[in-house]
User: Fold Demethylmenaquinone methyltransferase from Pontibacter qinzhouensis.
Amino acid sequence: MAVVPYKDQNENKKSQVAQMFNNIAGKYDFLNHFLSAGIDIIWRKKAVKLLAPSNPKIMLDIATGTGDFAIEALSLNPDNIIGVDISEGMMAVGREKLKRRGLDKKIELLYGDSEDLPFEDNTFDAITVAFGVRNFENLPKGLSEMYRVLKPGGTAVVLEFSKPKAFPMKQLYQFYFKNILPVVGKFVSKDRAAYTYLPESVQAFPDGQEFINIYQQVGFKSTKWHSLTFGISSIYTGKK
Assistant:
């Protein structure tokens, strides 16, 4: 049974995730940085640095949301970055942010389903996803689509929450995710389901070596797993 945000609804996970992000779009950036104490910014920087040696020129950011990962990727000096997402609400916030910063000519945000990407085979030098693969309705299918549109020799970088294994971080993490995050998330965003779904989806996600196994099954080679901040988050890289 897939973990979904709104358990009283009959819509599929994809529809519910889009609805959830549309609901919280206006508060998402603030909550993201506040609830992680800004560590998410450091994680994105680390993920982007892993792409530096390959010098990608055409990039795709999947589940781009408000475009934070795409903006960080500009440090690589690519020719073009396209961000795709299923939440028009998140991208509307992202487009305004890009316009304010004068970046709307460098990054384009488009509606796009991770399991049916609107691009031809072998299009992108690099693909990034930050905190998005956990929301895929069909994880292997979404990863297969990433592999399809990536150029031979290209690199995919996935940044995602994981589950700490060691004491005391494991216990502190679980307490924070189950007791503090949903309360603060509901108070600020007015959508409790969104911040109850987050820890539930992290718990259900096949992180670590399990994710690497799926990564490899869809075709990625030279896969690596980088654990961050005592196992709170992970970066996964793979090549086509």
User: Anything to note?
Assistant: The beta strands are 58-62, 80-85, 107-111, 124-130, 150-161, 221-228, 233-239.
